[in-house]
């Protein structure tokens, strides 16, 4: 087991991780920018290191400064939390190259799930259901117009490198396709430096349901049930509910199996979330579901999964990263409460 871990984050998630490290009797190292000198996570940690000015680019996103701080403090591993560098394959590679353990999936898993089009191809090859659409490399307007006709309207345009609703447009009619395509590509280029898009069938009566998965270094992968995150504002989740309500047992079991298959397809290690878009009846009961994306990190909303399972997911992350097998088998994990 590790003796000292650096938490490469700030705020609530840094405090959350430090709490578990304290319970496991593992020393914690906090990093902070000049703006966070007196922050709670700094005071909670066993020790702390100033890694730069207030701007995130010069502190919490500065891979070199974080690695230097970790080496200076003699830590065994680095926990990235969520946000910042948590899904940055270059960071995980830098941690490993410096002789420390990255508490998260492999850099290859992060890369594979980092682009929506690539992720969908992998899922499709692994027999995980994906939303009908086009995610090809040919990106000319002529090709995209042709593919849009095959899918039918309404449809969604999505930036392949996107997130948070950027580079995304709902197209209701063929007449508006080109204008919205150009807007989506322009926004994607500004936000992500990549203007490639994919096209998806628009689900008219959708729900957004995600499945928490966990894998270890021995090839064991399980699910820890599901969460509903359909209530959103500007494509950002507002309310999470666990377990997700109004899903028939057979559909729920298929969704859990699909999430585990998705994780197995990339030899996933650690905590991850497989997100599905669901097609629903008028009473919002889920009829069908398709893979949307995979988040290769601990999610903001992980505590509600902890509340219904009674498990500490951060502790699981640390144990798995240290080379231990998953603490529990699938049949030992049950839902208690809502």
List segments where confidence is low: pLDDT < 50 over at least 5 consecutive residues: none
The number of helical elements comes to 11
What structural class results from the helix and strand content?
A: alpha/beta
In angstroms, what is the radius of gyration? Answer: 21 Å
Report the β-strand fraction as a percent range: 15-25%
Q: Count the strands?
A: 15
Strand order of the largest sheet: 3-2-1-4-5
User: Shape, please?
Assistant: globular
Largest sheet at a glance? 5 strands, parallel
What string gives the helices and strands in order? EHEHEHEHEHHEHEEHEEEEEHEEHH
Our measurement of the CA-to-CA distance between the termini, rounded to an integer number of angstroms, reads 33 Å
* Helical content (DSSP H or I, runs of 4+): 25-40%
Mean pLDDT: 95
Write up this protein:
The protein is of the alpha/beta class and 338 residues long. Helix content is 34%, strand content 24%. The protein is built from eleven helices and 15 strands. The chain has helices at 11-23, 40-44, 63-73, 89-97, 107-114, 116-125, 141-151, 177-192, 249-264, 302-309, 313-321; strands spanning 4-7, 27-33, 47-52, 77-79, 101-102, 133-134, 155-159, 168-171, 197-201, 206-215, 221-228, 232-233, 236-237, 270-280, 286-295. Helix 4 (89-97) packs antiparallel against helix 5. The longest helix has 16 residues, at 177-192. The mean pLDDT is 95.
